[in-house]
Amino acid sequence: MKTIFWNVDTQYDFMRTDGALYVPGAEAIEGNLEKLTKYAATKGIFVVNTGDWHYDTDEEISDKPDYVNTFPMHCKNGTKGAQFVPATDPGNVLKLCRYEPLSDREVDWYPLTGLVLHKDKFDIFKGYPHTDFFLDYIKPECVVVYGVATNYCVDHAVKGLVDRKYSVIAVTDAMKELPAPGEPKKTLDSWERMGVRLATTEEVMKICK
Ligand SMILES: [Zn+2]
């Protein structure tokens, strides 16, 4: 597989003003998210959709959240808050929950258009620990990353992919950060220093044929 798209946490609870952990301004990127979703479908580009999928007992969930390591309940398993917004609706793809291994499934990957990987931590590589099995299997030449929040889960995805020597394009107008001093420039600059290519949605649609 040459290029895959990597959609991070574009779920109701993060994307919408009435969501449990709304990322301010996130709804403004939905137009670009929709363009990327449609482009992938048209071009047959495989989409990995990562999403939070929480239970009350998860480490990250707290009644007294510090908003750094712990947060109020969001993306509770099976609720609407955990669903992807229509702009990134993955459709009828294989959904794997948290610690459910890929390796035990007899899946012929290639007819699939995408995957949903449910996680319980910011970092997909920890919150869905079989992510490496999947990447080792398909060995993408380039991973195009977008979603929310830039300075949390997207940051973990980008850095985890770069650590594993994958070539990464970050779609700057299809992601949104949680407010923090210097953001999103601080996070984007750190990616560029690691060799990540920054691109707009329009540029991605020219680069990834
Ligand atoms: Zn979470």
Keywords:
209 residues; alpha/beta; 7-stranded parallel sheet; 7 helices; 29% helix; binds zinc ion
Ligand set: zinc ion
**Overall radius of gyration:** 16 Å
Strand ordering within the main sheet: 3-4-2-1-5-6-7
* Total E-strand runs: 7
| SSE arrangement, N to C | EHHEEEHHEHEHEH
Instruction: Write down the overall geometry.
Output: globular
Strand content: 15-25%
Low-confidence stretches: none
The residue-averaged pLDDT reads: 93
Task: Specify the biggest β-sheet.
Answer: 7 strands, parallel
Distance between the termini: 13 Å
Q: Output the number of helix runs.
A: 7
Category by helix and strand content: alpha/beta
Write the layout of secondary structure elements.
Blueprint: E1 3-8, H1 12-15, H2 30-43, E2 46-52, E3 94-97, E4 114-119, H3 124-127, H4 131-138, E5 142-148, H5 150-163, E6 168-176, H6 185-193, E7 197-199, H7 201-207
Parallel strand pairs: 1-2, 1-5, 2-4, 3-4, 5-6, 6-7
The structure holds zinc ion (ZN).
